[in-house]
Amino acid sequence: MHVEPGSTVGALQAALPLGALENRILLCHALGMTRVSLITQDTRALTAAEAARLGALVARRLAGEPIAYIVGQREFFGLALRVTDAVLIPRPDTELLVELALERLPDLGRVLDMGTGSGAIAVAIAHTRPDARVCALDVSAAALAVAAGNAASHGARVRFLHSDWFGAVAGERFELIVSNPPYIAHADPHLAQGDLRYEPPGALSDGADGLSALRTIIAGAAAHLVPHGHLLLEHGYDQAAQVRALLDEHGYTDVRSWRDLADIERVSGARRAAHS
Length: 276
What we know:
By secondary structure, the protein is α/β, with parallel strands linked by helices. It has helices spanning 9-15, 20-31, 35-40, 48-62, 67-71, 95-104, 120-128, 141-153, 201-204, 212-221, 240-249; strands at residues 73-76, 79-82, 110-114, 133-138, 158-162, 174-179, 225-234, 253-259, 265-271. The protein folds into 2 domains: 9-63; 88-271, Rossmann fold. The chain has a 7-stranded mixed sheet, sandwiched between helices. A two-stranded antiparallel sheet has the order 1-2. It holds the Pfam family PrmC_N.
């Protein structure tokens, strides 16, 4: 998209062809300005280089690229996290999983975050609870690099492991296991829509019915939980009943689901039985 050099910040906030929030985000990113400075410097005129930079960013968004990838970050649980196209973009819905985890985490508790991606869940827990011993794993080395950078930038102590599910934590036990695994079925039409078109397919879909990763975690988690330890899983909008059935089938106790801000059953969880 062409942006005319000499256009003012104030005029562009109204004239750019995106929503008000996205216009503001891209202006701040292109010009290195804060939200406050957009207001106080609304008569500032863009140089040719700034206009070209802004025009390129807007064109990328108009083509469908997610804002988070364009600006390279997304806020999650009050933390600015770096994101790249190697990781899933953190969603507000997943903050429910963090809140539930923090409610159940004992002092000096051990936490395992499976399929950490950007590290959003692990970093949020470790940042909020510095006493916790947080371990996070992912099969993607590129994702782990992003996650480690996010932990470092927020002073969050997290042990990162390159692992295909439980492979790298053999013999270890945790008070809490959490995961936001790939849970979209391979034939789901949403994969070809919106931001999902740009996100790593392996972080979105299991390539099957959407439940295979959840089955793997549920089947293996009991061996890595202390007695009465908690397992919390994010899942799809229509999968809660199936996830609860899987938890029941594997002998977990206190099986239940929790609703997100949209009143959708978004997280299901349970506890390991004392003698399982």
